[in-house]
C-alpha cells in the first residue's frame, strides 16, 4: 500500500482544495485512498492492470482526462519524459495558480523531478518518507516548453513518452522479426507496444488477422497510427487475463517489469497466457534477454521448446504443443 500522499495530506504538508474535482495522474493500483475526497476524484491512467485495480476499488478511471480540475496529483513514473509529460498535462487541467502535488519513490526518479522543477517553479515544503518524496507547487501561467513531449518518430514509427523502446526498434524484437517468415492464419502479438512486431507479422500475405494486445494505452494509440493494415485488431487489455483466440501463432517480446519493479513472473505469466490462447497446433515465438529465467515456464506450458537463435544477448525461442491445462 502506497501511503506517503495520505500522510503528507494528514500532516498538512500538502493540501487539496475543499471543493472541485481532483485529478490523479498514473497512481499505483494500491494507492492508499485515506485523506482523498474519493467522490470528487478522477483518475487518469493508461496501464490496464492498474486501471482494473483502481476501478475495482470504485474509482472513476479514464485513459485521458479532459476539462478543468481544482487540483492534480502526479505520481512520478520511471521514465522522466513521462513524468514531465504528466506534469504538463496536470498544469493544463488545473490552470495557472492551481495546485499540483507530486508524489514519487526515489526509484521512480522523484529526486531528479524535484531538482528540475525547482529550476522552473517555486516548490513548497518537501515531505520525505518511505524512500520517496511528496510536495506541491502552483501551476505556472506558462509551462516550460520541454515538459510536454510531442509523439516522437523512431524509424518512421510514432511512439510516446514512457512507452517501451520509445527511441527506436528494440534489438530483441528486431532479432525475432527475422523468424516470422512462416506465419499464417490468425496471429496474436502479446504486449504489442507501438506495433513494430505486428507490422513485421503483417508482411506475410498468409496472415489472415493480427491481434495486438497491449496494456499501455499510449503505446496502443501509437500502434493504431503505425499499423493501419485492415487485418489488424487492437485490444487494450492485460495479456495475462486476455480472452481471445484460439490463435495459430503468438509472437511476444514479454515485459520484464511489473509496474515499477523488475519481475520475471510477468514474462512467465505471458508464457502461460500464450499456451492458453494458442490452438493445439499453434506455435509461440518469443524473444527475451538470454539471462531471463523463462525455460521452466516454457517447459511446463509446452511439449516442445526450441531455441532458434542465441545472439547479441537475446534468445529467440519457438514453443509448440501447448499444454492448456497446465497454463
Ligand atoms: C518488451 S515490450 C515489447 C513491445 C513490442 N512488442 C516491441 O517489440 O517493441 C513489452 C510490452 O508489454 C506491455 N505490457 C506490460 N505488461 C502488460 C500486460 N500485463 N498486458 C499486456 N501488455 C503488457 C508493455 O507496455 C510493453 O509495451
Write the layout of secondary structure elements.
Layout: H1 4-10, E1 22-25, E2 41-44, H2 48-56, E3 60-62, E4 71-75, H3 80-94, E5 99-105, H4 110-118, E6 127-129, E7 132-138, E8 152-154, E9 157-159, H5 171-177, E10 185-190, H6 196-201, E11 207-214, H7 217-226, E12 232-236, E13 247-252, E14 257-258, E15 261-262, H8 264-277, E16 278-289, H9 295-301, E17 302-311, E18 314-322
Parallel strand pairs: 1-2, 1-4, 2-3, 4-5, 10-11, 10-13, 11-12, 13-16
Antiparallel strand pairs: 5-7, 6-7, 8-9, 14-15, 16-18, 17-18
The structure holds S-adenosylmethionine.
Task: Sum up the structure in keywords.
about 325 residues; alpha/beta; Rossmann fold; 2 domains; seven-stranded mixed sheet; 18 strands; about 25% helix; about 30% strand; binds S-adenosylmethionine
Amino acid at each position: 500500500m502506497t501511503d506517503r500522499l495520505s500522510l503528507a495530506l494528514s500532516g498538512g504538508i500538502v493540501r487539496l482544495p475543499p471543493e472541485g474535482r481532483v485529478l490523479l495522474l498514473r497512481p499505483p493500483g494500491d494507492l492508499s485512498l485515506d485523506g482523498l475526497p474519493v467522490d470528487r476524484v478522477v483518475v487518469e491512467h493508461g496501464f490496464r492492470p492498474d486501471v482494473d485495480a483502481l476501478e475495482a476499488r470504485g474509482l472513476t478511471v479514464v485513459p485521458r482526462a479532459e476539462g478543468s480540475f481544482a487540483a492534480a496529483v502526479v505520481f512520478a513514473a520511471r521514465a522522466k519524459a513521462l513524468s514531465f509529460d504528466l506534469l504538463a498535462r496536470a498544469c493544463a487541467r488545473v490552470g495557472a495558480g492551481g495546485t499540483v502535488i507530486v508524489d514519487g519513490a526515489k526509484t521512480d526518479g522523484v529526486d531528479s523531478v524535484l531538482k528540475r522543477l525547482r529550476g522552473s517553479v517555486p516548490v513548497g515544503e518537501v515531505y520525505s518518507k518511505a524512500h520517496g518524496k511528496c510536495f506541491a507547487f502552483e501551476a505556472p501561467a506558462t509551462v516550460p516548453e520541454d515538459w510536454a513531449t510531442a509523439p516522437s518518430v523512431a524509424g518512421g514509427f510514432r511512439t510516446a513518452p514512457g512507452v517501451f523502446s520509445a527511441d527506436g526498434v528494440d534489438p530483441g524484437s528486431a532479432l525475432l522479426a527475422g523468424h516470422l517468415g512462416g506465419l499464417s492464419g490468425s496471429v496474436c502479438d502479446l504486449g504489442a507496444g507501438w506495433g513494430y512486431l505486428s507490422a513485421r507479422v503483417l508482411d506475410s500475405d498468409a496472415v489472415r488477422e493480427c491481434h495486438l494486445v497491449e496494456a499501455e494505452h499510449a503505446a496502443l494509440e501509437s500502434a493504431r497510427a503505425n499499423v493501419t493494415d485492415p487485418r489488424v485488431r487492437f485490444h487494450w487489455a492485460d495479456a495475462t487475463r486476455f480472452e481471445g483466440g484460439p490463435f495459430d501463432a503468438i509472437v511476444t517480446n514479454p515485459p520484464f517489469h511489473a509496474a515499477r519493479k523488475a519481475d520475471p513472473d510477468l514474462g512467465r505469466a505471458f508464457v502461460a497466457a500464450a499456451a492458453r490462447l494458442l490452438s493445439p497446433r499453434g506455435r509461440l515465438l518469443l524473444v527475451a534477454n538470454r539471462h531471463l529465467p523463462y525455460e521452466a515456464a516454457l517447459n511446463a506450458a509446452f511439449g516442445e521448446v526450441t531455441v532458434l537463435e542465441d545472439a547479441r544477448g537475446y534468445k529467440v525461442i519457438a514453443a509448440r504443443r501447448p499444454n492448456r491445462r497446465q497454463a
